[in-house]
Write the structure tokens for this entry.
Amino acid sequence: METQAQRNPFPYSEDNKRYYTWNYYLKQRFGGKVFKVPLNAGFTCPNRDGTKGAGGCSFCSGQGSGDFAGDPAMEIGRQFDEIRLQLHQKWPQGRYIPYFQAFTNTYAPVEVLRQRYGQVLGRTGVVGLAVATRADALPEDVLDYLEEVAAQTYLIVELGLQTIHEETARRINRGHGWQEFLEGYRRLAERKICTCVHIMDGLPGESREMMLETACAVGLLRPHCVKIHLLHLLKGTRLAAEWAEKPFPLLSREEYVSIVCDQLEMLPPETVIQRLTGDGGAEQLIGPLWSRRKREVLNEIDKELLRRNSWQGRFWKG
């Protein structure tokens, strides 16, 4: 009878996945299903309030990339309970990682962070905490507090990078560049705080080679986790207005699948892949429209890796 290793040469898998899935990692670490509960704590962003820039990244929605998070007018504990119960319908035995998702979730005084994080830390079934932020929003006192949290629970700080290319970062009004990202990443690593780096494929003006260069550079950092996002054009964003005036090409599904597989091949095999495509709300999405069929995209990635007889880290050169 064919063994798992014969069916799939990738070691961090118990099914057909040839990359290190978030679900597999959590199951191995915690012994069962764990899911994120997305929250909106009502923070803002230094790239919106004038500290680093105004208007935010040109692709970012009015919800600060937290379109599926809770209602910021609602108390954090209540948000958590409502969303947790909704997700329990799908995973009735699951445990939870509260995910402070919308905007920049370290961009506040420490006493505010302590109060808001504290509303979900320690709750029954909570096994960790995820905090989405920017590399330029990590002052020393905030890092001290994050180190304290990491000593108590499984903490992941999610850092949006999107691209290593300075010209792209300027075009999308990112508000910081690669060197600032590296500094923030270094300071987290010095405190042994787990990081998840977000990159984005399909940004305007970027070639396939540029997207692969970003993945290669991130891989050399050996982050705990990576999220690979597809650029979504969403109604009401600055980038959508630019595209309406002067359209730039959006990736086809075939192009995206091929690029993602190339990126997986050059990432370290021990880096957990939290996401391989993004979500855009159906009512707000301008394109690519094929991205709404998420399961099909993930299936095509699986099929392409099989077709290549390849896997995450096959060409890793770390």
Summary: The mean pLDDT is 91.
